[in-house]
């Protein structure tokens, strides 16, 4: 089906009918019973075989399309997904395949395409779909050995490998802790947000642990713990570029979003150390517990890295838990050429890394690593039926009650791609980012906002009428507003165009004399399939899209703004 065709509702199926009663009044064998027997049989029955073969055909058709996304808006698509009744009887396999083929796959975003360079999602190694089929067949629940057994040992080994990558402790340390049932070098979770939450949960409990007179926060609660230790409240401190998961966890662990203190950054996107010291001094004067100091190894917006050695020193001087959010940048450690960017990460107490970002794994695997294995006991929870105190059960320290064995993906990646393979991927991403930055710098239609520290490039389109003012350093506040609106519409329209994709974000920038919110286009150069020609094509597509938005050269900027307001408002409603 061509992606340019309009969507239509799925064909009606057997789900709208009911089984006929037998002559003696008994209900004949239902369709439900038949498909249950088919779908749960040890060998594929007719329906399961039809689905398997049909899904293979659907995927082949999906792969053949070059478009990144369809031109359909969310308003147009949602009309086909409004029915809330559950079918009484099973749909025919052919009917469901038609639904996937016509209503789903044409509108799924092809995040692995070489010209999709807008988010931290990329093409995946071709062995992973086969491994995913194996994992689905095994259906292991990794929180207890009774539903995972050897997969528990694989996860522990994988955590040890990643721990060694980050902290690089002695051989004796890893001999003692990798498979010791009383030790855990970290926790595997489903996303970076949950990894950060787990790290802060651990840090909070560590700061308010039990004593001779106090049973500890886990027993007596957060408010009692604060009162016992004489604190007014508790805070987490990091830069203004902290991931938004920190705002979420402020509520989840009882601090409140207002107590996530965001420190200004310097001109390189790194936390302002002088401002940080002032805030720490104020918190101490006001009896506010500093649960953790958060350093960032690869900000989401720009890929910037904090001064980790300096932050480690500050944390050590003040006795503060030091957490590094390396969800994006952690795998840079594989690269001998670039690993110094993360110097100081080995001094962190806890580190977050996402496998589904620069480890090129499917969505759903992240981890928090603990330099000291004993840290994990601050979030220990056990039960009689699983996560038993003296067992190998990983659920003792996991915020999730059930979890698939996603660590097998990481284990496979570390074995089949290896240090050399991951180093090549990182080196190529950084090289392509610098290449694209040079293309942007040389193009008259764009302004490069920052030199890339890692493999993220931020820039913006400048309309022809405003380029002289840009070069003269005389852009007004109104000019900046026009540029912001144009870049918002450009990015929206590029996505709907379907030939290329760049994301956007908003930064507070003082490049032109005063701090102002600036809408920037954001390229993430991680896809190993992206070539120099692809980057040039992405830039050309953006110029063509911008020209289309501003095609009516006789329009005044007031008229342009009116048009842009209409377009951005329409897209935001979607």
UniProtKB/TrEMBL annotation:
Gene3D superfamilies in the record, alphabetically?
Answer: Aspartate Aminotransferase, domain 1, Type I PLP-dependent aspartate aminotransferase-like (Major domain)
Task: Give cofactor(s), names only.
Answer: pyridoxal 5'-phosphate
Which parts of this chain are annotated as the region Disordered? Answer: 1-27
Per UniProt, which keywords does this protein have?
Decarboxylase, Lyase, Pyridoxal phosphate
Q: Which domain of life is it from?
A: Bacteria
Any one cellular-component term (Gene Ontology): cytoplasm
Q: Which GO biological process categories is it annotated with?
A: carboxylic acid metabolic process
Q: Positions modified as N6-(pyridoxal phosphate)lysine?
A: 357
Q: What is a single molecular function from GO for this protein?
A: carboxy-lyase activity
Pfam families xref list? Pyridoxal_deC
Q: Which family does it belong to?
A: Belongs to the group II decarboxylase family.
Looking up PANTHER family in the UniProt record yields: CYSTEINE SULFINIC ACID DECARBOXYLASE, GLUTAMATE DECARBOXYLASE-RELATED
This one is known as Pyridoxal-dependent decarboxylase
Per the UniProt record, the source organism is Haliangium ochraceum (strain DSM 14365 / JCM 11303 / SMP-2)
Origin organism lineage: Bacteria, Pseudomonadati, Myxococcota, Polyangia, Haliangiales
């Amino acid at each position: 089906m061509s992606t340019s065709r309009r969507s239509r509702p799925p064909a009606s199926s057997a789900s709208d009918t009911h089984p006929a009663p037998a002559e003696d009044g008994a209900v004949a064998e239902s369709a439900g019973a038949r498909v249950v027997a088919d779908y749960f049989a040890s060998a594929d029955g007719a329906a399961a075989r039809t689905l398997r073969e049909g899904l293979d055909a659907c995927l082949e058709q999906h792969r053949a399309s070059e478009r990144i996304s369809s031109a359909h808006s969310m308003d147009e698509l949602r009309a086909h997904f409004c029915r809330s009744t559950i079918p009484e009887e099973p749909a025919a396999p052919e009917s469901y395949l038609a639904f996937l083929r016509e209503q789903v796959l044409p509108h799924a975003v092809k995040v692995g395409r070489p010209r999709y360079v807008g988010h931290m999602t990329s093409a995946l190694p071709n062995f992973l779909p086969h491994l995913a089929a194996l994992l689905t067949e095994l259906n292991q629940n990794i929180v207890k050995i009774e539903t995972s057994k050897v997969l528990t040992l694989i996860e522990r080994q994988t955590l040890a490998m990643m721990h060694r990558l980050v902290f690089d402790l002695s051989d004796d340390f890893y001999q003692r802790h990798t498979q010791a049932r009383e030790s855990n070098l970290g926790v595997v979770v489903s996303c970076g947000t949950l990894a950060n939450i787990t790290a802060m949960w651990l840090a909070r409990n560590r700061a308010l642990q039990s004593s001779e007179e106090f049973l500890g926060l886990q027993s007596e609660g957060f408010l009692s713990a604060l009162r016992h230790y004489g604190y007014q409240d508790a805070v987490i401190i990091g830069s203004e570029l902290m991931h938004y998961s920190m705002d979420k966890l402020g509520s989840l662990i009882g601090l409140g979003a207002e107590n996530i203190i965001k420190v200004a950054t310097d001109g390189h996107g790194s936390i302002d150390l002088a401002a940080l010291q002032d805030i720490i001094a104020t918190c101490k004067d006001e009896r506010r517990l500093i649960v953790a100091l958060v350093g960032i190894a690869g900000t989401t917006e720009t890929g910037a890295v904090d001064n980790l050695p300096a932050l480690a020193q500050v944390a050590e001087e003040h006795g503060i838990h030091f957490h590094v959010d390396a969800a994006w940048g952690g795998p840079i450690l594989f690269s001998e050429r670039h690993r110094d960017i993360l110097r100081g990460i080995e001094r962190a107490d806890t580190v977050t890394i996402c496998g589904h970002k620069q480890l090129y794994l499917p969505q759903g695997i992240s981890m928090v690593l603990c330099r000291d294995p004993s840290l994990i006991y601050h979030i220990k929870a056990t039960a009689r039926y699983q996560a038993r105190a003296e067992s190998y059960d990983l659920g003792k320290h996991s915020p999730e009650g059930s979890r698939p064995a996603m660590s097998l993906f990481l284990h496979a990646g570390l074995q089949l791609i290896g240090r050399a393979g991951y180093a090549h991927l990182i080196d190529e991403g950084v090289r392509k980012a610098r290449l694209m930055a040079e293309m942007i710098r040389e193009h008259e239609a764009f302004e490069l906002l920052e030199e890339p520290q890692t493999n993220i490039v931020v820039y913006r389109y400048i309309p022809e009428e405003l380029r002289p003012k840009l070069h003269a350093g005389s852009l007004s506040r109104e000019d900046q507003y026009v540029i912001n609106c144009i870049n918002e519409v450009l990015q929206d329209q590029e996505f709907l165009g379907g030939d290329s994709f760049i994301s956007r974000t908003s930064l507070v920038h003082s490049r032109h004399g005063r701090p102002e919110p600036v809408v920037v286009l954001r390229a993430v150069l991680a896809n190993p399939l992206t070539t120099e020609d692809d980057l040039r094509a992405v830039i050309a597509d953006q110029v063509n899209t911008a020209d289309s938005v501003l095609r009516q050269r006789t329009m005044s900027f007031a008229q342009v703004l009116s048009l842009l307001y209409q377009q951005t408002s329409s897209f935001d409603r979607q």
